[in-house]
Amino acid sequence: MEWITIVDWPGGTVADFDSAHAERGDPDALIARYIGMFNGDLRIVAVWESRQGAETFFANVPEEIGRRLAPRTSGVPTVAAFNSDRTWTSAPVA
Question: Does residue 92 contact residue 14 with C-beta atoms inside 8 Å?
Fold first, then answer.
């Protein structure tokens, strides 16, 4: 079953994410990711192969990257996570 994370970075922007992503690339355990703005903050919704894969990634994010993505909160995001009990996709997105 997949592990889903929803991360809100107050003060972050899509451009901030793009910059950090250019440096770090995609995590191995990542299946899909959706980036956008929600209520003025950067929101990242990610689908992971497992909880362990997500936790390994989050444990290894450099503090400097967090500060850049969330300047108003010193890199402390709001995170919601849950196990996906049901999954459906219509087709791969190119």
Answer: no
* 5 phi, psi to nearest 5 deg: -125, 145
The tens digit of pLDDT for each residue in 32-83 reads: 999 999 988 889 999 999 999 999 988 887 777 766 666 655 556 778 999 9
CA-to-CA dists, residue 71 to 26, 37, 50, angstroms = 22, 15, 29
Nearest to 35 by CA among 56, 80, 5, 61: 5
pLDDT tops 60 at residue 94 = no
Four-residue CA torsion sign, 2, 19, 61, 71: negative
Q: What's the rounded Cα separation, in Å, for the pair 49 and 30?
A: 6
Q: What is the CATH number of domain 3-83?
A: 3.30.70.100
